[in-house]
Amino acid sequence: MVGTSETRLVVLRGNSASGKSSVAAGLREKFGRGLALVGQDNLRRTVLRERDRPGAANIGLIDLTAHYALDAGFHVVVEGVLYADHYGDMLARLRADHRGPTLGYYLDVAFEETLARHATKPQAHEFGEAELRAWYRERDLLPGGVETVIGADSTLTATIDRVLLDTGLARLPAHDR
Buried-most residue among 121, 141, 150, 162 (CB within 10 A)? Predict the structure, then answer.
């Protein structure tokens, strides 16, 4: 078992440029200290510099990092594309192992909208439409109905507020605001 009955685990998934990182950053900003962000892009691309593939090392590193932070008493937000077929088993184990509430969200954004959002990102020059199209998976939901689908019509503020309320994080004190 991992974490405590008080720790919250939030999993934010969706296609590239669906808003996952922005939601995670907004959760951290509104909650304050005591909320760990476990970002797939940071661990996979920056720390390990590896490609996204089944069985890749970042899958275990995401799991290990989330476990460690939960055991240290942090609430944890795991965010990333986290394809269901690559990361689903790890996420299911993490969910089963966590003693506290675990909530999952899938940010469902149409491909055309991901293109428009990607164009506004600082790394927009690093990859373009062809790569985004190759990576895009429509409604790549985890099995078992464990995710709440949030559509592109939900504003960033509304999505952040919803996650804070759903998880109970809005009512919990931060370690040090």
Answer: 150
